[in-house]
Amino acid sequence: MGSITLQKVSKVFGEAKVIPSIDLEINNGEFVVFVGPSGCGKSTLLRLIAGLEDVSGGHILIDGKDVTDAAPAERGLAMVFQSYALYPHMSVRNNIAFPLKMAKLDKAIIDKKVTDAARVLNLTDYLERRPSQLSGGQRQRVAIGRAIVREPSAFLFDEPLSNLDAALRGTMRLEISDLHHQLKTTMVYVTHDQVEAMTMADKIVVLNRGNIEQVGSPLELYKSPRNLFVAGFIGSPHMNFVNGAYAQSKSAKTAGIRPEHLNLSKDSGLWTGTVKVAEHLGADTFLHLDVDGIGPITARVGGEFGAQYGDRVYLTPDEAKLHRFDDKGIALKA
Amino acid sequence: MARNVTTRHKITATVAAWIVALIIFFPILYTIITSIKTEPEAIAGFSLWPSGTFENYITVQTQRDYLKPFMNSVILSVGSTILALIIAIPSAWAMAFSPTKRTKDILMWMLSTKMMPAVAVLVPIYLLFRDFGLLDSRIGLTVMLTLINLPIVVWMLYTYFREIPGEILEAARMDGAGLWQEIVYVLTPMAVPGIASTLLLNIILAWNESFWTIRLSTTNAAPLTAFIASFSSPQGLFWAKLSAASTMAIAPILILGWFSQKQLVRGLTFGAVK
């Protein structure tokens, strides 16, 4: 079991109200990602759940039990830190065994659990090494191993992949997703990387300045962002926002068009623009355009669409996939 | 080509390092050389070729017993270091792991006491020692050495403790370690290298301290610093004997330093956890 409930949770550091008031329900077995720009309070929220910070107000419930005043160890959660936080003076084996030793388990049981975890995480050959003798990815796996042996009711991940290079990040993303499918344990994952959020989450919580902007599945957030912030944050490259006459013609203050929802042509279209930068990724090309009367627009086209700096191209937004926002930045229903 | 350049680089760097090391070591080397000269040789002028006599050592040992000041040096330096660590570990700990607004000010204030010339407080300290009957006592000197080195000990430990990443302690807390287990299994092993190098450095500092040890002791508590000083007597300078006494005084600490150089350096670089 591992459901987590936040009731009017707030956190104040001195004068700064980092988290004004948050209500959130995390169901058992869910993979929930907290995402937002740096300083949005996502890590603080995770640390509040972990018990590493005390709440300033509100309640935290784990499996229906109020743990607001419980010590971190009493909450039955395991955490993986950004810096891995391995014990540098212990071997990999002892690092993984540490929580079991603290729980005063039998030596035979500890050995078995450590061996099992090492096999799952491909660490069997490294058990006698020190963390300093491992690569970044291996260290991250040791940190995960230390978390899984405890069989916690939920895992907390604090930006676990941000110290890894891009290739390894992709691999570890898959490994963590795979682990979630195997263990079926609740996972709460904090990241500023919306790609990680989109690819791993069952449920994304978008945070901004300590407030929840929107909660939903990755595709819900992509298809129907509730406001300008979510619309701009989810999706890569970012959504284009168009104000002025075009938006007014759609009876909105701002119109939002994703780069992939623009039809480009070299012959005709609604708008005309000049290519400023063309990023050729192979399958796709991102064109950064200066559109006459509108301004900078990013468009995503197929790799076969040849365009160079200075080319004139025509654009037509896909009206069926248009997002409309009112003067407060709130999405208007279609 | 590239290989040649790096080899030449290495040779230049090695030669330069040896020259610098020799310049730094030369006074000690010359003291040792002078100690195996005869007295007329020693005052004759600069010479690197002694006659190789050990007469001075025998004279020094028969004139004044070496063992007593040596034992005093050991007791004073080790005693004051342990006392300083007992006081400094908890205070540095508190400042590193739960700092307040005033922590930096307190640290600066402690360091500022080291900037004061010691002679400025000679009279009040002397009078205090006299009134408390601490003159020429090992206890008095141990306390004095503890006090004068305490700021450095606190500072060194503070910087070591600061390098222990807070996330590791939080990880231990998440893993179910109580406060005591956290201290025994996680904090202490990570802090030991820092404590060890602080201990070694402080023993060396206490061993070499001469201002207070010479002024506050006469015979009973006099350590090796006073032993050396006693050879620069009003009857005239005996360079060779003075050098022999100096060599005997610095030899133990030189040997300790040589064997612990790894720990001394290791303590300064430990903490590379990421």
Automatic annotation (TrEMBL), chain B:
Alphabetically ordered keywords of this record: Cell membrane, Membrane, Transmembrane, Transmembrane helix, Transport
Main subcellular location: membrane
Any single GO CC term annotated in Swiss-Prot or TrEMBL for this entry: plasma membrane
Residue ranges annotated for the ABC transmembrane type-1 domain, each copy included: 70-260
Family annotation (Gene3D superfamilies): MetI-like (1.10.3720.10)
Bilayer topology: Multi-pass membrane protein
GO biological process terms on file: transmembrane transport
Transmembrane domains' residue ranges: 12-33, 74-94, 106-127, 139-161, 182-207, 238-259
Compartments where located: Cell membrane
Family label: Belongs to the binding-protein-dependent transport system permease family.
Protein name (database record): Putative sorbitol/mannitol ABC transporter, permease protein
Organism: Neorhizobium galegae bv. officinalis
